[in-house]
Specification:
The chain has 287 residues and is of the alpha/beta class. The chain has helices spanning 13-29, 53-58, 65-69, 80-87, 101-108, 122-133, 148-151, 175-190, 206-221, 256-271, and strands at 37-40, 47-49, 97-99, 114-118, 141-144, 163-167, 195-201, 226-232, 244-250, 278-283. The strands form two sheets. The chain has an eight-stranded mixed beta sheet with strand order 5-4-1-6-7-9-8-10, sandwiched between helices. A two-stranded antiparallel ribbon has the order 2-3. The chain is globular. It starts with 12 loop residues before the first helix and ends with a strand.
Length: 287
């Protein structure tokens, strides 16, 4: 149950698309002064070394943030907030560490915002607590060693009635797919207007294929707008490594689709490993 460690995958192509969407969504929500609650149901350790430990073993970052960081196209204005968030933790300009979702969200917190983190893995919870304790904004952050699927509903709706929920489990267990659907349903029952960002791997297994259909049906059942974005970097047989992933966003900010129309083609060019590299962008309200 506790074999998955995000450190192996830190800064890979899946992190790139997930964090681009996350940062853009947060900054749009912060254009209004009202407080926003940010929730990460599967927080991990928070920040990761890319040059030693697990990440150095897997070297997945080489096909993700390393490649993007060294590309001239990363200088495009659309990537500015993402580049700045990463640079905040690499002050010498050399990419040595990668901030996970908790540190990215912590970096973006305004004084009125709050961040709630769930992490069930006992080792990662301890590391996360130590890492968060080093931040100036630690008083705005709450960490719980609990099942994010089960306890998410206890935080909803937030007092401000404004919130963004990130759900990115490992999907190492087949039951994670059903847990995502059930947790999102419970959350929408309590907080239908929140922004929900659900990351998922694109795999050949039936559970993966069904998840998209179920998230679509769930969004439509609650009559909520949605957006689906996927990035595929390769398409070799066997799926010995993750080659594609996506995000399903319920109640996406209205600028997200145009933003991804501009940035996904760049990610395809920069991160794509062969001619099978592609992307998908679909919304419930096509232009």
């Amino acid at each position: 149950m506790f074999s998955y460690r995000h450190a192996f995958h830190a800064g890979n192509h899946a992190d790139v698309i997930k964090h681009l969407v996350l940062i853009h969504s947060i900054q749009y929500l912060q254009e209004k002064d009202g407080a926003v609650m940010f929730i990460d149901t599967h927080a991990g350790a928070g920040i990761y070394s890319l040059r030693d430990g697990y990440a150095a073993i897997s070297q997945e970052c080489q096909g993700g943030i390393d490649r993007l960081w060294s590309s001239q196209e990363f200088d495009e204005p659309d990537f500015g907030p993402y580049r700045e968030a990463i640079g905040q933790f690499n002050p010498k300009g050399v990419l040595d560490v990668y901030p996970g979702s908790p540190f990215i969200m912590a970096h973006l917190l305004r004084p009125q915002d709050r961040l709630r983190l769930f992490e069930l893995h006992p080792s990662d919870t301890g590391i996360l607590q130590t890492n968060i304790a080093s931040l100036d904004k630690r008083s705005q952050i709450d960490i719980r060693q609990q099942d994010g699927f089960a306890f998410l509903k206890s935080l909803l709706p937030p007092p401000s009635r404004r919130g963004l929920i990130l759900m990115d489990p490992s999907y190492e267990l087949k039951t994670d797919y059903q847990a995502v659907e059930e947790s999102v349903r419970e959350a929408l029952d309590r907080f239908a207007t929140g922004t929900y960002l659900i990351w998922y791997p694109v795999l050949q297994r039936p559970e993966s294929k069904q998840l998209i259909k179920r998230l679509r049906a769930l969004s439509e059942e609650f009559q909520r707008p949605w957006l689906r974005a996927e990035l595929r970097i390769a398409h070799s047989l066997g799926e010995r490594r993750l080659q594609a992933s996506g995000v399903w966003v319920i109640n996406p900010v209205w600028t997200l689709a145009p933003f991804l129309e501009r940035t996904l083609p760049i990610l395809q060019r920069v991160l794509g490993e062969d001619t099978s590299a592609t992307f998908v962008l679909e919304t419930s309200s096509p232009a």
